[in-house]
Design goal:
This protein is of the alpha+beta class. The protein is about 20% helix and about 25% strand. Strands 1-2-3-5-4 form a five-stranded mixed β-barrel.
Length: about 170
């Protein structure tokens, strides 16, 4: 079978067109938020101490809690965690069938100051097919219910699939 230059160029143009279509349909991010410079400055000036920063990240049918990082550490170094609630329940420990704003995951994308520690255990989360770090929660304080994007300004949230991962 012989492939001509015309076929190769046509195939290349088609691939480029499909790639552009996928990009334009996604568009920019859907979380809003600060510029990269503003976010970096905020993280650089964060108070430090015996706590972590966490961002709730909810995806239907998964049981991970969200991302956790150390103070002054960029979000792309955060870990997706399973919360262990022996000592403190997560803020969204509500019914999954409750009224809007009063149900499990009402706090998606809320940023928290978390108290607790990593247990050293890896926990299997079957719906995302991942082994994730276990975090023992001992306390929390909500900081911002609308902090905007997590990893990049073009982050897109989809409650039905994992779309936000550190890059």
């Amino acid at each position: 079978m012989t492939i001509s230059i015309t076929h190769i160029l046509t195939l290349g143009a088609l691939c480029l067109l499909l790639t552009q279509c996928g990009t334009s349909s996604m568009g920019g991010g859907n979380l809003g938020g600060p510029s990269v410079e503003e976010r970096n400055a905020k993280i650089a000036s964060e108070p430090t101490g015996d706590f972590f920063y966490g961002r709730r990240y909810f995806v239907e049918k998964t049981r991970f809690w969200g991302y956790v990082r150390q103070p002054r550490q960029p979000w792309n170094r955060a870990k997706l965690v399973i919360m262990r609630e022996d000592k403190k329940k997560t803020p969204d420990r509500l019914s999954e069938d409750g009224a809007p704003g009063q149900r499990y995951a009402f706090d998606n994308n809320t940023e928290y100051r978390l108290r607790g520690y990593y247990t050293g255990q890896q926990v299997y989360e079957p719906n995302s097919n991942q082994f994730l770090s276990e975090f023992m929660l001992t306390g929390y304080e909500p900081l911002d219910s609308q902090p905007g994007w997590l990893f990049r300004p073009d982050d897109r949230y989809d409650r039905l699939r994992i779309t936000m991962i550190p890059r």
